[in-house]
Amino acid sequence: MMKTESGIMNPATVLIIEDDDLQYEIYEDALAKHNLVRAKTGSEALKMIPQHRPDVLILDHVLDKGELGLDFLPGLKELLPHVPIIIVSGALEVHQQLDALQGPRRAHFCLTKPVDIHALKRTVESALKECGERETVRQFEALERSHRVDALDLFSRSTDRLARQNRIRELVRKSKERPNISALARQFSVARRTIIRDLLFPKVETLGYYRISLREKDWRGSRTILWVKILLTLVIISLRYIFPISLRPH
């Protein structure tokens, strides 16, 4: 059952590409609660899809008129990119089954004939609940979460560096001796090359592809510099991560 925008539950549409009448009768009995649409060849199915868009597609391999179901898998996925496809066939070798379940235009499930009725029912229900558009939404949500984690980590590392650079500059200004690179590296628990970089390039901060340059002479006080840089960093993170994520499909 599929819920419409008004909240009404309608039977799911299952497109079955199967040339054997006896096998199709098995599908009719097992999937009686769904709206079944039949095609005997892959060519016929491609013509039917614009008028009968399915929620799940069941595909046999050896079809009428000498057609092979797997040959139509790329075309079916092109028309129905978010519709789960279940291959049901007794004529496939193991490597063919694996090939059908891999790649960008893959099937979601592969069952062998004679098909187990209970396994068929479970697979169709799983396809309706876990695959298709729901699967795509979950992938976008996972991508959004990963971007947020990356953004927070990037922001944390950037602010840590800003604070360290300001502290190093304060220490260097107060000391009359040349900076001790090794001592500073131990104090801040970073590599010597990091301290050297902070001493040589204190006015330029890098965040992704963006660079923020602030001149100390234009500002008074290291705290003011730090907070201005933090504010600009937050703006950059928002532009780079939040706006693209808001364009995900509904």
Gist of the model:
With 250 residues, the protein is α/β, with parallel strands linked by helices. It has nine helices and nine strands. The strands form three sheets. It has a five-stranded parallel beta sheet. It has a two-stranded antiparallel ribbon with strand order 1-2.
Question: Would you write up a description of this structure?
Answer:
With 250 residues, this protein is an alpha/beta fold. The protein folds into 2 domains: 2-131, 3-Layer(aba) Sandwich (Rossmann fold), CATH 3.40.50.2300; 139-245, no CATH class. It contains 9 helices and 9 strands. It has helices spanning 21-30, 42-48, 73-79, 94-100, 117-130, 133-174, 181-188, 192-200, 222-245; strands at 2-3, 9-10, 13-17, 35-39, 56-59, 85-88, 109-111, 204-207, 210-213. A hairpin with a 2-residue loop joins β8 and β9 (210-213). α6 (133-174) runs antiparallel to α9 (222-245) and α7 (181-188) packs across α8 (192-200). Residues 203-220 and 245-250 have low confidence and may be disordered.
Run of helices and strands:
EEEHEHEHEHEHHHHEEH
In round numbers, the mean pLDDT is 77
What would you call the structural class?
A: alpha/beta
**Total strand segments:** 9
Helix content percent band = 40-55%
Question: CATH architecture of the largest domain, please?
Answer: 3-Layer(aba) Sandwich
Biggest β-sheet, characterized?
A: 5 strands, parallel
Shape: rod-shaped
The number of domains is: 2
List the uncertain runs: 203-220, 245-250
Q: By CATH's scheme, which homologous superfamily of the largest domain applies? A: Response regulator
Assign the CATH topology of the largest domain.
Answer: Rossmann fold
* Helix run count: 9
CATH class wording of the largest domain: Alpha Beta
- How far the N terminus sits from the C terminus, by CA atoms, comes to 20 Å
Question: Strand share of the residues?
Answer: 5-15%
- Please compute the radius of gyration using only Cα atoms: 30 Å
Q: Which assembly state applies to the chains in this document?
A: single chain
Kindly report the spatial arrangement of strands forming the biggest sheet: 4-3-5-6-7
